[in-house]
Amino acid sequence: MTTGDVGRSKWELDTPVLLADLDVVEANIERLARYCRAAGVAWRPHTKGQKVPALAHKELAAGAIGITCAKLGEAEVMAAAGVRDILVANQVVGPAKAARLANLLRHADVIVTVDSLENAEELSTAASRKGQTLRVLVEVNVGMNRAGVQPGEPAVRLSGKVAALPGLRYVGLMGWEGHCAGIADAVEKRRAIETAVGALVETAERCRQAGLAVEIVSCGGTSTFQGDRAHPRRDRDPGGRRHLRRCPLSEPGGRSSSRAHRPQHGDQPAHADPGDRRRGSQGDECRRGASAAEGSGRGHGGHPLR
Ligand SMILES: Cc1ncc(COP(=O)(O)O)c(C=O)c1O
Questions:
Q1: Model pLDDT, residue 19
Q2: What is the residue with the minimal CA distance to atom 4 of ligand 1?
Q3: Whole-prediction pTM
Q4: CATH numbers and ranges of domains, the chain
Q5: Which of 157-166, 227-236, 277-286 has the lowest mean pLDDT?
Q6: Which residues sit with their C-beta closer than 6 Å to ligand 1?
Q7: Is the distance from CB of 68 to CB of 89 less than 8 angstroms?
């Protein structure tokens, strides 16, 4: 749509065209920002569903610490539009793309995920060649079987190797519990999410025990955040928090799908209490702090605190 289209009937618009109800979009953004603040988790919305820099800027203005992209090309578009903190929640493979990623570091502070040493070495070479440092998360397969190393020892081992590579800065772990999205039964779904996120969080703990600096434990999405909400309050270090990736589009309740599942508890996470809110505000300070906005996750809703 161009500015010349503003004010015209929708029937006159050329297709394909993305139309969103701005009032609903803004209400969703506000709702998610509030939700994450109350839960004390940093919010890094995924932009794959809308790919619109103007919407990403709205999310950042509402408190998102950065954004998530599915691929390098999307990250390049967002960086060109002035977005600084970008997670590419995928593997960027091959020398040509590794060089593009290293070049992008001149314009944005990118994080990428790896799930193999070969890929990490390739990125290390590309970043070093440009005199850059690339932040890296190790992707953990928490059950979706799309990408990632297995939780536990394999992820700890790869993390250690990545942390030792020049040109890279190991910052933690990412998992995506997308296999839980389609589970119809709410109790079963919650259990599946807790199992998946639990594997991620336990792996993060093992990485820390191995002496690795896990600043970020990133998970979550539009279809699973209701199940994630019990986790962050129990698992944060003082001032730290996990990331949530999610993408509010145009459905009240923060869902981008037409079969919206509405939150049952308003904007407060389940079991919210004044203590939770206190911890949340500590997190807010951290968001403005130097190591900015990145969180760490410990334990989760289905696991006892350690
Ligand atoms: C790695 C990853 N994280 C999170 C999400 C969730 O995105 P959304 O919130 O748009 O459903 C996705 C979506 O497929 C994803 O691939």
A1: 84
A2: 221
A3: 0.79
A4: 18-254+275-288 (3.20.20.10)
A5: 277-286
A6: 46, 48-49, 70, 89, 176, 178, 221-223, 245-247, 256
A7: yes
